[in-house]
């Protein structure tokens, strides 16, 4: 939790607001009682209450706490404006039973639950807050609701428990652009579509803030509306004054409600262990129950907790600082006895190819961990506590020589008899490997050869893909109900951020040791789950062995011709300037082509093009889809802007950025692959993203031409041909497609012939193009609207194409219907290799949300299987090439393509061996019923090879 003063304070908890936020931020299936009742919102609520009670009771000063709830949908605001919140949908079915459970939880925690018919929770919060401030009592409003920001003032602070963020005056200004006392005026102008508050048409938060800051307040602005320069804005302010005044009545919180319960009745009471534990057991919150029981049994009880705000380790955690070889050796010996050890590295960079190792942590049992500092520069936190002579010694930190510590750590990691656990092991192993090469002297000891390494990030990914993020902080909160120390809390952020090497070791100890400790605890939970849920095969045969494969690919990197990139940058700069000049001529005036707002005004106001839509901020939307629609209607300026945007993005993202991303030590570019990012199992490329370079455009090909092999080598591209269609033919058992693939037919021509009822001999290129769009669109569950947009045809024609497609290939329609039904029943889908992808929103009442989830359910098993296949190929590739004495290395994985660097005299043998691996990658796990084909290309550049 952020730093809240340790004094008598009144905590006003926005119970209703928190329920909804907790529900939508936690995965449903992770919190479900044995009787089928979902409890994710209740779990988040209970965890939040524990932390707040800890804070309020710290230091022994009694405070006040109350949880405020809405009493129903109808309030006095509906009497003022019957349409108020009329657009709100009913809560999800999974949430409705949790409302009463949250009230029950409140009572179990000895807290008052306050509500009043006719008023919203916000009004009661405003009333109690004003009363407390008048009495000189500090108020903390626990909520993230922007509507409550009007209350912020001296003595009233907001706290967002989900973001661990205090909201004071500066945060309100950042949100609304005005001081808290002016928030009502801004909201009166901007309105709020979620609450059906009208506001002034065309005015959003930013514009409203500008107007209020200029005129001082709402009444002055409305009285001087005729002074506004913009015609449409002036007209709206004059014509809709009544709407602004109505909106002010709706957004202003009532702070004088005649409440029944008085502040004195809200004094924080001691918790009743039996009541709390009984409720938590009823909810089946095993981890949270253990946490509460351990606190009651410890010397520091729940009513007198450790000072969490200082981020000290918990009373029942044993974290040790290791500063000599002997102590580290003892820890490693204990690790061998237990058989499992979690480890984590602390470094100077998130880039594994640049990071310096600052220290590492180990954990061998829950609550017990150590930290080994290696490259820290400071000993303690506050030099003010030191004498002058001591200050000079503050930098003289006792640390094990890095070569000595690395030698011990390396032996541990390479030993197959002891299981090592890390979170994002790829990163940690790459950092340790590079530092071994740098600091260890003997050549034979420099190369790290990891053995028996598990990864909690990948375990989470295999178990819960689609359920939430897989970073350690989120997993700790979700599975352990534990709020970890955040990196930014000890290093700062922005301009004030310091390197981890500059973090004093007394602070670094708890942060680093906690990471290893939490990793081990999560591992124990996941290891039992992955066996119980029968997901071990995907983890053990695909994700786990891929760690070292991806590490090697990233370490190898790829060479680029910097001169080619520099020349391309110059060319792109000239062309973007010409496009900008062209756009100015087409607009009839000079404008900032990079400004969506200015572009929108020119397109829809000056040029009068129809179809303009404004967003919440009041500006016209000018996204790619809108510009593409306008360009297809024959308007020149939108197409010019699209061309400019594409070229400007390529220039900034690739031709300029890539030169700066060449590693000074290797002379190559090293992308980083995200192994737990895409829900379907695909890898993602980052820093730089080499998967998004356009394939078919001339500019994209020129950028790919800058990627080159080392002297005496060639680049080889092996690209799966239409792998997702082949997977679809297999999983849907489409006899016509299977036969076509077996015979090596042109699948898009066949589809065109079938759908449009045209003989293959008479088929036009345009019909084949349309069939190709249908084939690939069907995989993604495309709608008639989407297909019409892609092909530039009417929605009626597009629907006719789709109907004809399913008539010719009924097995695909059956597969889609069956898959959607399975997803609705189970909230997940599977690939043919057993990978599970969780689908959220599949039963949502909102048709757009539900439709998106259904399309995801259709595509995920296909895209996921394609990802599994290429991953299996990557795992087998190294041993297969090595067995044949070949020296090719994988440089990149881009969707369905692998790019290799190989000696020129090994071209034919490598193509044969690598193609065999890729084309047989599904076997023996899946006897796929259609042939997989890897198309090969050789060249002196990536463009030539591809």
Task: Give structural attributes.
single chain, 946 residues, alpha/beta, Rossmann fold, Nucleotidyltransferase, domain 5, Taq DNA Polymerase, Chain T, domain 4, six-stranded mixed sheet, 39 helices, 11% strand, globular
Task: Provide an overview of this structure.
This protein is α/β, with parallel strands linked by helices. Among the domains are: 9-169 and 253-266, 5'-nuclease (Rossmann fold, 3-Layer(aba) Sandwich), CATH 3.40.50; 317-533, Ribonuclease H-like superfamily/Ribonuclease H (Nucleotidyltransferase, domain 5); 559-667, Taq DNA Polymerase, Chain T, domain 4, CATH 1.20.1060; 724-860, 5' to 3' exonuclease, C-terminal subdomain (DNA polymerase, domain 1), CATH 1.10.150.20. The strands form six sheets. Strands 3-2-1-4-5-6 form a six-stranded mixed beta sheet, with helices on both faces. Strands 7-10-9-8-11-12 form a six-stranded mixed beta sheet, sandwiched between helices. The chain is globular and about 90 Å long. The two termini are 52 Å apart.
Terminal-residue CA separation: 52 Å
Strand content: 5-15%
Main beta sheet: strand number and arrangement?
A: 6 strands, mixed
Structural class: alpha/beta
Question: What fraction, in percent, of the residue positions are helical?
Answer: 40-55%
The number of helical runs is 39
Total E-strand runs:
22
